[in-house]
Design a protein that fits this description.
Blueprint: E1 2-6, H1 8-11, E2 26-30, E3 33-37, E4 43-47, E5 53-58, E6 62-64, H2 65-78, E7 84-87, E8 94-95, E9 101-103, E10 110-112, E11 114-117, E12 125-128, E13 141-144, E14 147-149, E15 156-158, E16 163-165, E17 181-187, E18 190-194, E19 201-205, E20 208-211, E21 214-218
Parallel strand pairs: 1-7
Antiparallel strand pairs: 2-5, 3-4, 5-21, 6-20, 7-18, 8-17, 9-17, 10-16, 11-12, 13-14, 13-17, 15-16, 18-21, 19-20
């Protein structure tokens, strides 16, 4: 259940500029493993996810009244952990053509946008990207082979799912042929939620509050 709310619209507000609150202090990568221990001392491990989930620690620990009000407003909009919203990671928000490569089996009328992390390394992984920045912010570059395709003419792109529809353009389009390679350059958001339902803050002196650590959990 998503709402049309981008957290950067809040943290980039003028009230957050005084203490550098717009910059996350820390980002964790959580690998999810199911571990069952036995009396013998042996254990059984099961891999739950093939990619890590991210947790962002946001620097809202010292805020003035305007920042405090914005933060409480954001908690209210999200209803604590209930509603997810969007985050533009300052260091991971774009996908290069070399990071989104999809080879058609043949017959596909759609292509899902992806991003490969650590391309060329041994331990690379690929993630589906579904929250794409609209073309009013960054117009995606999409190619089949070396030929650039035009959104609205050769395809349509659903920003909420990251799916390219090759039958949705105005030009004669159709299914991809076997072996055709689709590449894309685009920008994206992460879907996140608050890691806690509780917001706590303390007024340390007049007009200045100290907030409990704020963490955002990636929603996959």
């Amino acid at each position: 259940m998503s709402i049309a709310l981008v957290i950067n619209d809040f943290v980039n507000d003028a009230c957050f500029t005084g203490f550098d609150e717009a910059t996350p202090l820390q980002k964790d990568f959580q690998f999810v493993t199911d571990v069952v221990g036995y009396d013998s001392g042996k254990e059984q491990r099961g891999q739950v996810m093939v990619q890590p989930k991210r947790v962002w620690h946001i620097n809202w620990e010292v805020i003035d009244l305007a920042g405090r009000n914005k933060l409480i407003e954001l908690y209210q909009r999200a209803r604590g952990r209930y509603q997810d919203f969007l985050l533009q990671d300052r260091w991971d928000y774009a996908c290069a053509l070399t990071e989104c490569i999809v080879t058609a089996v043949g017959g596909e009328e759609t292509t899902q946008l992806v991003k490969a992390y650590y391309v060329g390394e041994t331990e690379t992984w690929t993630e589906t990207k579904s929250k794409i920045m609209p073309s009013t912010i960054f117009a995606p570059i999409v190619k089949i082979g070396a030929v650039v395709k035009t959104e609205g003419t050769h395809f349509t792109l659903d920003d909420s799912t990251g799916i390219i529809d090759w039958t949705g353009g105005t030009a004669p389009n159709g299914a991809l042929g076997a072996g055709e390679v689709v590449t894309a350059q685009y920008q994206f958001y992460f879907k996140v939620r608050f890691a806690d339902d509780v917001h706590q803050d303390v007024m340390t002196r007049t007009g200045i509050w100290t907030s409990a650590p704020t963490m955002l959990q990636e929603v996959i």
